């Protein structure tokens, strides 16, 4: 990637880098997660420090080779001044991307779902859409909940049964013998997820536990600090 590149992007994290520079982790529409250095003059400092905050949609341009690129132009497109519970949910989704994405993995559908989530949170907290974002993120990383069949026998899911989810095997009956233990998940929840907006309080609580387990596997036990607030 040596030519100039332009893309929509969100800042996942920024750090001071030498004098009058920032080290940025960006989630871009075209190239996924990338790392850039943004240099600025004293006259630009206040404006760019404000622009390079998370929860802002940017139009960025960068160039360079290797693992760290040079950002040379940025325009702010939209900002999402979230508050209270919505801010916690938006921060949690951002931390998932920061800690869970591989460098250079283009995921435009996930990018647009993240954008959609922030737009919804701008109005009010939205647990259902946050859960859908988490499931989409995990699906992009080969952790998919089969909502129709168990992945062991191919039989249709029974809402009265209890299953196990294994990252390497998918949904399997509770009695199935596999090397890794996985964790339990009810057939009722799996069937209810076909219409995720209709989950009741008990199902939503179980889904939170399931998502935490799946995220734990994907992140190899890394801590998501915003989860403690969530």
Quick overview:
With 230 residues, this protein is α+β, with helices and mostly antiparallel strands. It has 7 helices and 8 strands; from the N terminus they run βββαββαααβββααα.
Explain what the structure shows.
With 230 residues, the protein is of the alpha+beta class. It has 2 domains: 5-79, Nucleic acid-binding proteins (OB fold (Dihydrolipoamide Acetyltransferase, E2P)), CATH 2.40.50; 84-229, Recombination protein O, C-terminal domain (de novo design (two linked rop proteins), Up-down Bundle). It has 7 helices and 8 strands, in the order E-E-E-H-E-E-H-H-H-E-E-E-H-H-H. It has a 5-stranded mixed β-barrel. A hairpin with a 4-residue loop joins strand 4 (56-63) and strand 5. The protein is elongated, with a radius of gyration of 20 Å. The two termini are 38 Å apart.
Describe the main β-sheet briefly: 5 strands, mixed, barrel
CATH superfamily label of the largest domain: Recombination protein O, C-terminal domain
- CATH C-level category of the largest domain: Mainly Alpha
Average pLDDT figure: 90
How are strands sequenced across the largest beta sheet?
A: 1-2-3-5-4
What structural class do the secondary elements suggest? alpha+beta
**What's the helical proportion of residues?**
25-40%
Which word captures the global form?
elongated
Task: Write down the secondary-structure element order.
Answer: EEEHEEHHHEEEHHH
